């Protein structure tokens, strides 16, 4: 691009260019030319219009016909004269503003509560703009708690139902930070205002005066006296309608109307408002029951407990889960430590009992195994005594050996004696362990467990005492 083309573009486009010059006091300001805006009608017409406005009375609500015609002519002239220039300038300015002011800039201004910046740059076109996370200026203002900015954005046409990428709306974000006034403002429904209907303070004052002049009246249905309302409003109130006890269109029995049994009753001619049975006097609802927790006899009046309909089966333990239990007072530090020490002692005592019981069971299993081994030795000895061979086969663990019959018989006798000794020792120890177990269980010892057989001398002495000859 040549220098001449650049200068041509610079003078033709209406953009505030910056000029950089050397430091000097004689340099003239070379700022770009600005368009001078003037009225599009003659001075006589303007004079006539202003005179009609001054002469107009305050009671008139409509403009004179001449002024309206003059305005229409002014608008026509202005539209025909400057349509091309204004449209190009407005479009260029809007594009410049939208290009310079980004979404992040708007969100930052909302976060800093810069209302002047928002009033200058926020429009209906970018009021619902969102960033990469789906946040709009209304969401940012609600999360930061700026009530004035929220009101400004709502008046500008911000969408209250927009959700971010997490699925949250502006009201939910405000509720997350506990800004209840903003939540109420966002959930408030904006009613459409008709242009013909205006707010009239005189009507409001008349209603207040009418309410003050209303005399107090007594409602027989509500059985109360009301003064700050009218009878018509009171009859339409929720309190009055509730006290009239209106009947429902369909009686609710707790089951679906599509139930097969219910449909069968209706098809056979049963009236829903009547009771069961051919006479229509049977019960319509289940019997109310009450959980009896005291020791009074049947038929006594229970004042505290409430009767209600339950659906528990007989023997169901969940029927008393909701019964109120007495609250236990919290334990002190010293009592809590004592309770913990007591539980620790119980655990140690139970551990000792379990260990001792395990030892007893192990000894019993070992006695059974030794007794079986001793019986096997006895069977082998009898088989060796019956046969007449000099050598025989014998198993020693997993080995199969051939040895003389006499040596095998001696080996079996030796093993049998060792088994008898081990069994007697285990039985004697088992008696002691059983007594120790019963001591740990805090039970008396087994009577006659520690008895031993009498010797030959002791039997002879008893015989002599009894007068028996040996």
TrEMBL record:
The reply to whether Oxidoreductase figures as a keyword in the UniProt entry is no
User: Matching Gene3D superfamilies, A to Z?
Assistant: Ankyrin repeat-containing domain (1.25.40.20)
Q: Which sections of the protein are ANK repeats?
A: 133-165
Q: Record's SMART domains?
A: ANK, G_patch
List residues of the G-patch domain.
Answer: 257-303
Q: Does the keyword rRNA processing apply?
A: no
CDD domains, alphabetized: PDRG1
Keywords carried by this UniProt record: ANK repeat, Coiled coil
Which sequence ranges form a coiled-coil region, renumbered to this chain? 405-443
For this UniProt entry, the molecular function terms from Gene Ontology, in alphabetical order, are: nucleic acid binding
The protein here is known as Protein BAT4 like protein
């Amino acid at each position: 691009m040549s220098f001449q083309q650049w200068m041509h573009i610079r003078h033709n486009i209406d953009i505030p260019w910056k000029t950089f010059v050397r430091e000097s006091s004689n340099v003239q300001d070379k700022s770009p030319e600005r368009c001078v805006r003037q009225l599009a009608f003659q001075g006589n017409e303007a004079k006539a219009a202003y005179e009609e406005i001054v002469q107009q009375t305050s009671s008139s609500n409509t403009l004179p016909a001449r002024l309206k015609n003059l305005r229409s002519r002014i608008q026509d002239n202005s539209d025909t004269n400057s349509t091309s220039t204004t449209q190009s300038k407005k479009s260029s300015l809007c594009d410049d503003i939208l290009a310079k002011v980004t979404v992040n800039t708007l969100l930052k201004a909302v976060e800093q509560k810069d209302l002047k910046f928002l009033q200058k740059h926020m429009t209906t076109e970018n009021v619902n703009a969102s960033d990469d996370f789906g946040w709009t200026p209304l969401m940012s203002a609600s999360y930061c708690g700026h009530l004035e900015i929220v009101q400004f954005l709502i008046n500008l046409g911000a969408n209250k139902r927009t959700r971010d990428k997490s699925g949250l709306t502006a009201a939910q974000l405000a509720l997350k930070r506990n800004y209840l006034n903003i939540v109420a403002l966002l959930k408030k429904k904006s009613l459409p205002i008709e242009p013909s209907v205006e707010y009239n303070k005189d009507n409001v004052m008349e209603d207040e005066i009418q309410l003050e002049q209303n005399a107090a009246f007594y409602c027989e249905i509500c059985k109360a006296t009301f003064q700050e309302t009218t009878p018509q409003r009171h009859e339409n109130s929720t309190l009055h309608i509730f006290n009239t006890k209106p009947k429902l269109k369909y009686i609710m029995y707790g089951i679906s109307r599509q139930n097969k049994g219910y449909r069968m009753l209706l098809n056979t001619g049963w009236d829903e408002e009547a009771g069961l049975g051919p006479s229509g006097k049977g019960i319509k609802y289940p019997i109310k029951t009450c959980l009896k927790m005291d020791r009074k006899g049947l038929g006594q009046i229970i004042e505290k407990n409430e009767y209600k309909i339950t659906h528990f089966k007989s023997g169901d333990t969940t029927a008393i889960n909701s019964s109120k239990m007495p609250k236990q007072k919290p334990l002190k530090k010293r009592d809590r430590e004592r309770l913990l020490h007591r539980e620790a002692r119980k655990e140690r005592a139970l551990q000792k009992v379990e260990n001792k019981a395990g030892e007893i069971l192990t000894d019993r299993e070992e006695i059974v195994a030794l007794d079986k081994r001793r019986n096997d030795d006895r069977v082998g000895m009898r088989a060796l005594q019956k046969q007449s061979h000099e050598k025989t086969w014998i198993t020693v663990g997993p080995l199969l050996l051939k040895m003389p019959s006499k040596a095998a018989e001696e080996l079996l006798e030796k093993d049998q004696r060792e088994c008898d000794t081990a069994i007697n020792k285990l039985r004697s120890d088992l008696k002691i362990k059983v007594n120790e177990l019963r001591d740990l269980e805090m039970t008396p010892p087994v009577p006659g467990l520690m008895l031993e057989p009498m010797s030959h001398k002791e039997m002879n002495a008893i015989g002599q005492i009894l007068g028996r000859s040996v």
